[in-house]
């Protein structure tokens, strides 16, 4: 009886079903800092430390871009006062 209970508990803990997708995130402790944007510069490269929830099976590229609708969400989450620049800048 004890053997049967042990076998059932071990087989029930197998990790054969994924319950979530892998997500990329930027750790809040590693702030990017200030990035000076100039009109004549069309793109800017910067190394930003990112992580994934679980090991990735292949290499991938991350592209970041500003999303004006999320500035207030960012400010609430990070206790910050970031502003979005007008599009004409």
Automatic annotation (TrEMBL):
Pfam families: BT_3987-like_N
InterPro entries, sorted: BT_3987-like_N (IPR013728)
Domain BT-3987-like N-terminal: 20-88
Name of the protein this chain belongs to: DUF1735 domain-containing protein
